[in-house]
Amino acid sequence: MTDSIPYELDDLLDDRNRALHAEVASQARIVLQRSVDHTWGEHSTRLEVTISVAPSKAPQASFAHELLHAKLELEGWRRPRIIPAKPETFEVVAYLYNQLAHWRMYPDFERMGYPASQFLNDRDSDEIRSLLKRDIPTVESLYAPARRPLGGLLVALPFIASQSPHQEISGNLHLLKRLHRVSDAHLLRDISLLLREVQGDSGSDVVEVFTRLFHLCGQPEVRFRPAF
Length: 228
Ligand SMILES: [Zn+2]
Prior knowledge:
Blueprint: H1 9-12, H2 18-25, E1 29-34, E2 41-44, E3 48-53, H3 59-74, E4 81-83, H4 87-112, H5 122-143, H6 153-162, H7 173-182, H8 185-199, H9 206-216, E5 223-225
Parallel strand pairs: 1-3
Antiparallel strand pairs: 2-3, 4-5
Zinc ion is lined by residues 65, 69, 98, 102.
């Protein structure tokens, strides 16, 4: 196996993502690298955007997806710092940040003209499904003894995983129904509203979104600060 990336830049560009690529390239140097784990990814500093490239059924759409992540971060919608910093919270916030970024950027992906089915690659969709299959039975087993609706990150995490901004949840619908049966309905409603707010054009601030989400999940002591 070679270390070369599976595509040339020309293979990744089309008329739908060319302007976005130019916009990001005008603000930071874009470095393409071969993905080490067969998934696409993006990491940016103020000066450089690194995109990990993997084989894809729709490479231009995958490239557009990562460019949208980069655009968000260059606009300052970055994963916030957590105070106090704890490794377990870090993991959760990294995961949630990725999901919230998807909500935030999906309208742009749609406006660019890509079909909803190309927003996530197959590996991402499979991963979400296996996460839900693992977590929802756990949530149900915790509900069973007292039959009291559950809240907190315990249900917020699988719920947010099951909610996709492009509404392609058909494969997860029965898992979502099971989650609804054991969860605090107000919490799920409030999280849905927050996700839609993130997706709207209200210019929601990432620190405020995380502060509110952790408040809803009964962890108001977790505080957030801008990344830099
Ligand atoms: Zn993504």
